[in-house]
Amino acid sequence: MQDGEFSGRVVSGAATVLAVAEQFNRLKQVAGSLSQAALSSEQGYFAPSEDEEVRHLLVSYWQSRNALLEVVLEMKNDRQVDSHFLVGYAGALVLVDAARYLYSEFDERPVVRDKLNEPAPHFGIPADVYDTVQKSLINPVHTWHLYHAAKYFEENRDSLTALVEGTTLEFLPPLIESHQSSNEMSLSAFAVLSARVQARQLMDLVKEDLLHRALYGLQKSVSSAVSGLYTVRDHVPGLPEAIRDRVRELLRPGDVLIVRKEHALTNYFLPGYWPHAALYLGTCDELSAAEFGDHEHVRPHWDNLLACDADEPCRVHEALKDGVHVRSLSSPFASDAITVLRPQLGLEEIYPAMARGMFHTGKSYDFDFDFTRADRLVCTEVVYRSYSGVNGVRFDLTRRAGRMTLSAEDLIGMAISGRHFDVVATYAPPDYDELKTGAPASEVLQATAASL
Questions:
Q1: Burial of 227: CB neighbours in 10 Å, binned 0-12, 13-18, 19+
Q2: Does one domain contain both 273 and 202?
Q3: Domain count, the chain
Q4: Is 231 a domain residue?
Q5: Which of 226, 261, 285 is the last residue of a domain?
């Protein structure tokens, strides 16, 4: 099978699973160091530098976890879609592995556990979140929900492996096998749990074919982890057609789009009401006329830029949980609120700046939120690495959870104050359900941007 035969959702989900699995491995190293620091601590508390590392561990773990929860929930119960199953099952196992590792490291370390349970209001983290989620993921009932997935994988291992052989998804079966082994998720282990779970009548919940039961189990396995967050599972974010049309009329290459999806898991534990940013590149015709594809950093991605969405001519450069990619405008338009910021630069400066940012296309998402490194990027970092230093543009990074960061609301604050950016338009329902431009748009942002 070729990569092009898999749905975009599957390819994106697989990339996210791989990125988060690698991120969790890095966090395990940090957790191990913190565990040793807590063990050797004579004063019973952390030094300031250690305190920052614990807080950073919490924020990074939670955002990585939420990205995977979204992936598993996105793998719908489509019948006979084995690729959906592989992505969802791998994601669920990575979630369980990380949660159990942190639990095993810190269960006997009250200094660390108490610190991880402290609230972090700036990131929207309430008290006792760590204990709450850990309990949901080590619960035997939660583990039992993965039984059908484990059974389906065991009975179809060869065909599932053949399905993804030679594609970018071929890492999924080995990843599943390694995590099943490390978490003792064999069918015999599930059998031990079955007696307890049968008493709760979970065996009667699903009575359809095995793949359907497997996908259902994956959905249920993360539903308890999601239930504590204020999400609406059936909500489909999207701007009204009239708003989309009006925003299109206003957009200019180089504009920065700041958006919010209501009820999205990845809104949580990011600072402010406005959590996400994307860089608007322009229409394919505009970019072709500007000879954008001739730039050395753009050339390797030019064909994909032109072809990534035949129904939508506008392009953005955007870092999401699956990495940094050129996408169509449909991506940020799949939101419930939007604001447009414009750099105080001419197009002769904007096109080279956007081309410079294209150097980072294909990199992974940075769940560490660390602007001091460039091998992985967060959403606002696409803007930062494109415009920083261009005709005097300067971004003031803020230390959050032990890392130097730039939030989407930091960009809004720059525009409200007229520093390097201007506010073009804002739409923020339900309180501001008309598209505002100019000064009225700035007033809406001042009212909605919680961190300003």
A1: exposed
A2: no
A3: 2
A4: no
A5: 226
pTM passes above 0.70: yes
Q: How far is CA 438 from CA 17, 416, 418, 427, 442, in A?
A: 41, 10, 12, 12, 7
* 31 assigned to some structural domain: yes
Instruction: Tell whether 169 is covered by a domain.
Output: yes
Nearest to 408 by CA among 418, 398, 128: 398
Per-residue pLDDT tens for 410-437?
Answer: 999 999 999 999 999 999 999 999 999 9
The residue length of the chain stands at 452
User: SS3 for 156?
Assistant: coil
Other beta carbons less than 10 A from residue 115's beta carbon: 22
Give the domain range for residue 372: 241-448
Q: 280 with 333: CB under 8 angstroms?
A: no
Cβ atoms 50, 34 nearer than 8 A:
yes
Looking at 226, 255, 280, the residue that finishes a domain is: 226
Q: Is the pLDDT of residue 325 over 70?
A: yes
Q: How many CB atoms lie within 10 A of CB 81?
A: 18
By CB neighbour count within 10 A (0-12 exposed, 13-18 middle, 19+ buried), where does 267 fall? buried
**Residue 391 falls in which region: left (phi positive, over 0), alpha (psi -120 to 50) or beta:** left
Q: What is the DSSP string of 17-83?
A: HHHHHHHHHHHHHHHHHHHHHHHH-SSSS--HHHHHHHHHHHHHHHHHHHHHHHHHHHS---TT-HH
H/E stretch holding 194: helix 187-198
Distances (CA, A) of 152 to 215, 217, 222, 309: 10, 11, 18, 34
146 and 263 in a single domain? The answer is: no
Taking only the tens place, the pLDDT of each residue in 196-239 is 444 443 444 433 455 555 655 555 555 444 444 445 556 778 89
Q: Which of 71-85, 337-351, 435-449 has the lowest mean pLDDT?
A: 71-85
Q: Are residues 217 and 248 in the same domain?
A: no
**C-alpha of 364 from chain center:** 11
C-alpha 337 chain-centroid distance? 18
248 and 189 share one domain? no
- Same domain membership, residue 184 and residue 253: no
Q: Does one domain contain both 171 and 268? A: no
